[in-house]
Task: inverse folding
């Protein structure tokens, strides 16, 4: 594969983004062969990744929100490719990118093409892969119920606003989690299974997670009697959490599980999550907080 041949898989809503256009031009002026393809509907990102790999592109850039980044990372993970991924975060939350220290300015993000890639893990549940985090409980309800219009107006603060406005609907979920030398059963308000550290526009559920340690971080916020304080702790990302770091974890709930997987809803009575070590090569800043071996 050519060393300086890249394809940008760009969410269709970003087609007229002038900052992205200028950043692409700057990359080309540095000697990169960078082609741009737009997504239009579900499945486009996976198809475009397949076409890029078949055509011999050595680098793929995922441009869009957390869902687009996950779709591209998943497709590359399943392909078991040696091609590397650059993240161009253009969404409202940009949770994985922020935790990893990826710049939010398009030109600075695309400059990571010139940084060497490093292997990171992916999470797997069933036949799906995820880059950042699976969440359950109230945190996933907030993410699912935050409107696109509200996010356009007030950005990531929309998640906080939605959480406060839906306080009266706050309900605990009764679950059982089982992993190597780990067992927890009870009612929870929030659950994070993280390859990254935060979800839902900045809720830090797994503050010590590393993306290259071959493990998933587990963050459980048990449901206490005093719901107001628990909601405040959830939104602040602190206090009360039960934590573990595991290669896999199984979750069961007689009431059924509502999981948010990097923005995608997932429902089941039982699920098994596992880490896929070094499943993807990604260009991250040299001193990214998600790397156990910075630089």
Result:
């Amino acid at each position: 594969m050519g060393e300086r041949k890249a394809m940008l898989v760009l969410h269709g809503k970003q087609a007229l983004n002038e900052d992205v256009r200028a950043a692409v031009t700057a990359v080309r002026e540095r000697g990169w062969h960078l082609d741009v393809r737009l997504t239009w509907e579900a499945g486009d990102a996976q198809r475009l990744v397949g076409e890029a790999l078949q055509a011999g592109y050595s680098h793929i850039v995922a441009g869009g929100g957390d869902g687009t980044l996950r779709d591209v990372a998943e497709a590359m993970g399943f392909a078991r490719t040696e091609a590397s991924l650059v993240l161009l975060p253009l969404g409202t939350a940009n949770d994985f990118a922020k935790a990893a220290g990826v710049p939010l300015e398009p030109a600075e993000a695309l400059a990571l093409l010139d940084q060497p890639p490093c292997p990171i893990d992916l999470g797997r549940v069933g036949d799906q892969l995820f880059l950042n985090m699976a969440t359950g409980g109230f945190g996933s309800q907030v993410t699912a119920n935050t409107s696109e219009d509200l996010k356009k107006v007030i950005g990531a603060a929309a998640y906080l606003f939605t959480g406060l406005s839906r306080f009266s609907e706050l309900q605990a979920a009764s679950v059982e989690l089982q992993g190597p030398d780990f067992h927890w059963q009870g009612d929870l308000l929030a659950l994070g299974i993280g390859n990254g550290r935060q979800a839902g526009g900045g809720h830090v559920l797994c503050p010590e997670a590393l993306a290259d340690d071959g493990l998933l971080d587990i963050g459980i916020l048990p449901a206490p009697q005093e719901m107001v304080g628990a909601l405040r702790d959830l939104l602040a990302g602190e206090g009360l959490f039960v934590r573990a770091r595991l290669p896999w974890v199984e979750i069961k709930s007689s009431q059924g599980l509502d999981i948010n997987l990097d923005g995608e809803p997932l429902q089941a009575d039982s699920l098994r999550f596992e880490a896929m070590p070094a499943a993807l090569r990604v260009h991250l800043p040299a001193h990214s907080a998600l790397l156990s071996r910075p630089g």
About this structure: Residues 130-277 form a domain with the Tumour Suppressor Smad4 fold (CATH 2.60.200.40). Residues 139-148, 150-169 have pLDDT under 50 and may be disordered. Residues 25 and 197 are 32 Å apart (CA to CA).
